[in-house]
């Protein structure tokens, strides 16, 4: 029966020796990377996952396939289930298995959650963001969006058997900034963007592109992403890949101000006071704050005004580094620009000149008699 199969799969998770195929595929890796680890309680499997970047290809493929199976249900993830047994009972008693990890993630800042559970949840979230196939909720909610916007990445057969290194999730983030996602997909991607804004390790593309910058300039900083943004604004980042990813990070903050935790915290009072009737996302809250920055009648708090002014400079530089790619992007850039009123006046002025010029200059083509037109 299905229940018996689940029990057998769960037991197999506990000890790698109960899965001869996986044990054989990773035999050399167990000796070279995890020689001090004893099989049992999921320890060997967890060790191999931690050293994923050093695994032989055969073992890496086998581990990824196991992770895909675990992603379908927390009940098949022995290490997570063991570490979070009490947390699952306390916070997620009625939650279905496919949503249990997200439920635990939503409660990971609760003081009553066990430290071991919190660490394991964080580890699983990092793994999940390396490949959309490890996120059951994202797969279901964004199925149509992935097919529409990210099919070229998904159809890359070379990466089929191992992680796509966050490429599909980054593709969805790009469409999130452009407000192109479906209503079912957008909130899920928004959640991923917000989580990644609080921990750069949940953004594998950024972490990989900016490895040297993080090590040399930001490793002792409490907020790695804010440190990268500061170095970006000061023109200190020379690596073009890292520069591009930090610019993308800034664009995400424009689309959803909660994806910019420092700005959101500084302007929370102002958002509640002046922008309380707006729906978060799609740049609504930022546009509201920028209106307040320009206005003589809206008094933003000093902390918000100061940081927002600095962010405006950052937005302008980010637009140069990662230029717009479509008419929709141009419209969005203008809508979120602090100089948007100026652009509107200039556009209206140009249209007015064309209209008046047409009135005074008359038609350009030569008038012809009706009988010649019919010919």
Automatic annotation (TrEMBL):
One Pfam family here: Cys_rich_FGFR
Gene Ontology molecular function terms on file: fibroblast growth factor binding
Localization in the cell: Membrane
Transmembrane segments: 342-365
Superkingdom of origin: Eukaryota
Membrane topology recorded in Swiss-Prot or TrEMBL: Single-pass type I membrane protein
Principal cellular location given in the protein's record: membrane
Any one Gene Ontology cellular component term annotated for this protein: Golgi membrane
Protein name, as recorded: Putative golgi apparatus protein cysteine-rich fibroblast growth factor receptor
Cys-rich GLG-type repeats, residues: 112-180, 237-297
Database matches in PROSITE patterns: GLG1_C_RICH
Keyword tags: Glycoprotein, Membrane, Receptor, Repeat, Signal, Transmembrane, Transmembrane helix
């Amino acid at each position: 029966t299905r229940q018996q199969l689940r029990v057998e799969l769960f037991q197999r998770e506990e000890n790698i020796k109960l899965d001869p195929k996986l044990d054989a595929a990773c035999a050399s890796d167990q000796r070279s990377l995890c020689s001090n680890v004893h099989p049992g309680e999921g320890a060997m499997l967890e060790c191999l996952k931690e050293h994923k970047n050093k695994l032989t290809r055969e073992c890496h493929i086998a581990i990824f396939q196991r992770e895909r199976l675990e992603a379908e249900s927390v009940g098949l993830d022995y290490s997570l289930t063991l570490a979070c047994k009490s947390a699952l009972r306390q916070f997620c008693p009625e939650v279905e298995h496919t949503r249990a990890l997200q439920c635990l993630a939503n409660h990971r800042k609760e003081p009553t959650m066990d430290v071991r559970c919190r660490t394991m949840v964080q580890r699983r979230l990092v793994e999940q963001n390396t490949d959309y196939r490890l996120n059951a909720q994202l797969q279901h909610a964004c199925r149509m969006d992935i097919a529409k916007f990210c099919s070229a990445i998904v159809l890359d057969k070379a990466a089929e058997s191992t992680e796509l290194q966050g490429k599909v999730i980054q593709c969805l983030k790009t469409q999130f900034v452009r407000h192109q996602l479906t209503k079912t997909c957008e909130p899920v991607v928004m959640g991923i963007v917000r989580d990644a804004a609080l921990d750069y390790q949940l953004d594998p593309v950024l972490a990989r592109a900016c490895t040297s910058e993080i090590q040399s300039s930001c490793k002792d900083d409490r907020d790695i992403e804010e440190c990268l943004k500061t170095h970006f604004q000061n023109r200190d980042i020379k690596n073009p890949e890292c520069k591009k990813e930090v610019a993308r990070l800034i664009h995400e903050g424009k689309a959803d101000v909660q994806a910019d935790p420092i700005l959101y915290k500084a302007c929370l009072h102002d958002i509640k006071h002046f922008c309380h009737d707006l729906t978060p996302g799609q740049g609504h809250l930022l546009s509201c704050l920028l209106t307040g920055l320009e206005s003589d009648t809206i008094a933003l708090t000093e902390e918000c005004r100061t940081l927002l002014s600095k962010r405006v400079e950052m937005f302008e530089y980010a637009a140069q580094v990662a230029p717009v790619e479509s008419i929709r992007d141009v419209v969005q850039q203008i809508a979120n620009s602090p100089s948007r009123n100026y652009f509107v006046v200039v556009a209206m002025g140009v249209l007015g000149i064309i209209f008046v010029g047409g009135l005074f200059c008359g038609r350009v083509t030569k008038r012809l008699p009706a009988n010649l037109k019919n010919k």
